[in-house]
UniProtKB/TrEMBL annotation:
<comment type="similarity">
    <text>Belongs to the tRNA nucleotidyltransferase/poly(A) polymerase family.</text>
</comment>
<protein>
    <submittedName>
        <fullName>tRNA nucleotidyltransferase (CCA-adding enzyme)</fullName>
    </submittedName>
</protein>
Amino acid sequence: LIGLYGNELGINVYVVGGFVRDLLLAIRSKLNGAKKSIPYDIDVVVEGDGLLFGKYVAKQLRAKYVEHPKFHTCSIFYRNGENKIIRIDIATARTEYYEEAGELPKVELSTIKKDLYRRDFSINAMAIKLNSGSFGMLLDFFNCRKDLEEGRIRILYPLSFIEDPTRILRAIRFEQRFGFEIEPNTLSKLEEAVANGYLEKVTGMRIREELEKILEEPEPMKAIKRMGKMKIIFHLFERTYYSPTMEKDLEKLFDVKNYFKNNLSNYLNKVRLFHLVLYVLLQYTPEESLKKITARYGLPKDFIKNLMQVKNVYNEISNELKNKEKISKLSYYYEKTNGFQNEQLIFLAVKLPEELLGKYYEYLRKIEKLKLSITGEDLLKKGYEGVQIKTKLEEIKKKLLNGEIQPGEEKYLI
Ligand code: CTP
């Protein structure tokens, strides 16, 4: 239909980028017998006025229309027959040029070939024409399909990473997602851009977006390992050295998070994987650098304080490991983590020695369900005052946790 509207307005319309890549991959895997779904986010480029075209299409389809005038693009949200929302982003064919490395692109009008040439990698630089008459025609100006078939990530022009250093992270994401290889010349350009500090020139928000996309991949660890080895982590987070200990902690983080998902899912409320990963990566980073990093990536105000709290608790626990009796009581974990946020509780699980993990999970399960049958009000009536009330309630909670009293017996302690 979109192509038909193009004909009605007399402009060329193409679907481009990730959609074409995934379509060709899906066709290939279908031929191999595998099932792969085709995505519902579609990038469309027109040779003509993208905004005018978008408005026209939205009207014809009775779809929602949103304009992004700064980038000269618009989006249409359309509910298809299967009741799925399809997002169609429409842009005018453009040669993007960047005034300075790391900045968002300025836009200048041009044609489809130039538009494709300015894109990140060959696998993302194909288009399919949608106009009726030539519907389905694949435009492949730069041997892209061959790269896709042979599993190669290749930039199309030498300054690609310099103009947009977020592509460094994208290269790794696609490489790991598809099990492709970054072609040697592209790899050397990528490494050069990293070593020359181009990642540092990008705003924290744009880097963060790319990192979050990596974390949404099915196996983010692969890309993280690669970024660690290539010193990308070091260039993203100053004075942060990726080490084997960190790698083990990260692997454990994904296991722990899985455990929480299956067994303690309430603790995942308000938890962001991005924060958890940064707790692990930044656990040895000096404090002055942490201040800059938290500001750069828009981390919560209390991020450093929370990280330090967990580190302190972890150190205390490490020193008390010999005291078997103490660490075997559930109240011990209450004392250590009372007031912790969920992200801190999960990070502590990553740091705890394996032998304590069972107890710790048992504690989390129990405290989650723990309800006292008396309240502060009851204590007030009995003559307790101020901080005494809080202390008494905590004492009772600990006794319940340890099984020293049973639920319902709280009243005998006041
Ligand atoms: N693109 C680019 N440079 C970037 C980001 C995007 O050239 N830094 C181009 C690529 O052609 C890409 C398209 O814009 O295919 C759309 O980008 P995006 O939606 O981020 O990625 P997809 O390729 O659709 O990948 P994904 O499957 O991760 O959504």
